[in-house]
Design a protein that fits this description.
The complex is a heterodimer of chains A (about 325) and B (about 270). Chain A is an alpha/beta fold and about 325 residues long. Chain A is built from eleven helices and ten strands. The termini of chain A are far apart. Helix content of chain A is about 40%, strand content about 15%. Chain B is of the alpha/beta class. Chain B starts with a strand and ends with a helix. Classes of the chains: A alpha/beta (about 325), B alpha/beta (about 270). Chains A and B meet through helix 6 and helix 7 of A and helix 10 of B.
């Protein structure tokens, strides 16, 4: 006797697509970029091609600082050793390595470090813009007071370029939100591994008159153990809420991989019994990036060229682009 | 929660007057206010003022001129409902309502199909309003089955277990809650479940408190739609809070604002 068992339909229809966000502006659009980046627009969970559309593949931004990365571990400093003195040259090198965007981190502005001036920060941003054609992410030094002094000049210096600036937090969002409105930049909303605060920051920015469609969520990133697990589940919940219709959660998600990975001992330690850190580090970074891709990352900020290469290859495969003849966006 | 704004109803004196005098102003004022408050649908009802389909058509057109919000065409008379449906400009519509009466179902289901409308089915039959759970469930299930048979999906079916005034029929509120729970088990996904919320507090003191307490309890049982006063801030805040507690919305400190934000969003999205 033949028994036929019907396999139940498991496809879900989600009512609300994730916002689509474009970063960078070409000459025609009032900027000087030779390429732009578009992310988001998903109508389903990460890489559920059978269920919905993932119109834009995730992208990789590479990290550049306004000062040399003195504290970068050797394994990841090496590929940039002779260009770290100049953010422009550094950015060019990243583009050669395949960066879709550059993330300029204004570490040099940190008052507990080099304490560079807002003018110097603006100059570094211009320098990167003039050196490469890809769009730009600009990340503050993390000191609220200093960032609020630096960003007015920086946001103006890159006006028209449709950059992604960050970050705003629950306690410090007014200045940067106003600047991004005035100079038409996009905004990174940061929360400390806390989905409730992630939503709160978005509502605060919306209340301050900013468009939800111009926000990218940064839920914080981890590169080890519980850190990864917490962020992973927050990203999943965020994405599901967004797809279900929560407009304050339907944003593309950004993950700051490089800075986290190259801070953990497992990736950077010079311990021969753990294997060559020149291999271990990039492998750790690529693996971490892969985890976040599966959790729903749209933008990954990374450091090591080998990790970037492996991650971009992984994205092509996850998007099924190899099969379709390798077409990008 | 699907919010159906109750205010454009000729049982209210100002709307009655407006319908009689064909004065658009009060109708459009209520349309705008309810839309701004986040109504998903605007209920439109000419009540006992008129039996003329063209009066319903006028009311629907008047609302459509003012706001892009979907409309709930509300009448006990099929011809009047038809008048409203014909006046529609293509926006989503809810027919309010059929009963479990065969003649009503035979007339209204084809209309729902023709206009791609959603349909409220009130758990009433030719014998009148049920006083127990069993008949409410029986009637609801009958409407549900007939609607599915006609080609409607569960998302387009709203079942109404009939809410009655707590002051006069105190035992019925609990029966309604139990019925709601039964309705949620009709299918997966279940149909929407809706009530005419203001019925509960008719002629009572503490109307607002009774209304929102019932609503929150009903939401816990599975209610997900209501014809109600969307301008009652305390009611809206209670709904927003109940959605948090039922884990339908992600908590944020500004969750009340987030709920109101949806009003702004709804109106932006519908802007042609």
């Amino acid at each position: 006797m033949e028994v036929k068992i019907q396999i139940p339909e498991v496809k879900q229809q989600w009512p609300n697509p994730i916002n689509t966000i474009k970063i960078g502006a070409t000459k025609e659009e009032g900027g000087t970029r030779t390429s732009t980046v578009t992310v988001g627009g998903e109508t389903t969970l990460p890489f559920y091609h059978f269920e919905g559309k993932i119109p834009h593949p995730p992208v990789v931004a590479m990290e550049v600082w306004d000062i040399p990365g003195e504290d970068w571990p050797e394994a990841v400093k090496e590929p940039f050793a002779e260009v770290m003195h100049d953010p422009g040259e550094w950015a060019k090198r990243c583009v050669e390595y395949g960066a879709d965007l550059i993330c300029l981190r204004l570490k040099g502005c940190d008052p507990n470090g080099a304490n560079k001036s807002p003018e110097e920060a603006a100059k570094a941003a211009r320098r990167v813009l003039e050196s490469v054609g890809v769009p730009l992410i600009i990340w503050g030094c993390g000191n609220d007071e200093k960032d609020n002094e630096v960003f007015p000049l920086v946001a103006e210096a890159v006006a028209g370029e449709n950059c992604l600036l960050g970050t705003i937090t629950e306690d410090n969002y007014k200045t940067l939100t106003a600047l991004c409105t005035a100079y038409k930049h996009k905004l990174i909303a940061e929360s400390p591994v806390d989905i409730n605060i992630a939503k709160q920051v978005n509502i605060l920015a919306f209340d301050a008159g900013f468009k939800l469609e111009d926000i990218v969520i940064f839920p914080s990133s981890g590169a080890l153990g519980y850190g990864i697990e917490y962020v992973y589940s927050i990203m999943e919940r965020t994405r599901i809420a967004g797809l279900k219709g929560d407009k304050a959660m339907a944003m593309p998600i950004l993950c700051d991989i490089g800075i986290e990975v190259w801070g953990v001992k497992e990736a950077k330690a010079e311990l021969p019994e753990w294997g060559d850190p020149r291999k271990r580090g990039p492998l750790w970074e690529a693996t971490t990036a892969y985890v976040y891709l599966l959790a729903g990352a749209d933008i990954l900020i990374m450091r090591h060229p080998e990790a970037v290469r492996a991650t971009k290859e992984a994205i092509r495969r996850l998007m099924g682009l190899d099969r379709m003849g390798g077409e990008g966006q | 929660m699907i919010l159906i704004g109750e205010r454009i109803n000729a049982s209210f004196r100002d709307i009655k007057q407006a319908v009689l005098e064909k004065d658009k102003r009060p109708v459009q004022e209520w349309a705008r206010r309810q839309a701004a408050a986040g109504a998903d649908y605007l209920d439109v009802n000419i009540g006992a003022v008129s039996k003329k389909p063209e009066d319903m058509a006028w009311l629907v057109e008047t609302v459509q001129e003012a706001v892009p919000t979907p409309i709930s065409v509300d009448s006990t008379t099929v011809e009047v409902i038809k008048g409203g449906l014909k006046a529609l400009d293509g926006r989503p519509v809810l027919i309010n309502s059929t009963t479990a009466d065969d003649r009503k179902l035979e007339q209204l289901l084809p209309l729902a199909v023709e206009y791609n409308a959603s349909l409220i089915g009130v758990a009433m039959d030719e014998r009148g309003s049920p006083q127990d759970v069993a008949r409410r469930v029986e009637n609801g299930a009958k409407i549900f089955a007939a609607a599915i048979e006609a080609g409607l999906t569960p998302e387009r079916i709203f079942l109404d277990p009939i809410l009655m005034p707590i002051k006069f029929m105190q035992a019925q509120a609990k029966n309604v809650l139990e019925t709601i729970q039964q309705y949620t088990m009709l299918s997966d996904p279940p149909p929407h479940i809706s009530v005419g919320l203001s019925n509960i507090c008719s002629k009572a003191a503490e109307r607002s408190l009774i209304t929102r307490t019932f609503l929150v309890m009903a939401m816990a049982f599975g209610l997900d739609a209501a014809v109600c006063n969307v301008l009652d801030d305390e009611l809206i805040n209670a709904i927003a809070t109940a959605e948090l507690i039922l884990n339908k919305e992600i908590y944020s400190d500004s969750y009340l604002q987030a709920f109101k934000m949806r009003a702004a969003r709804l109106n932006l999205e519908r802007r042609p």
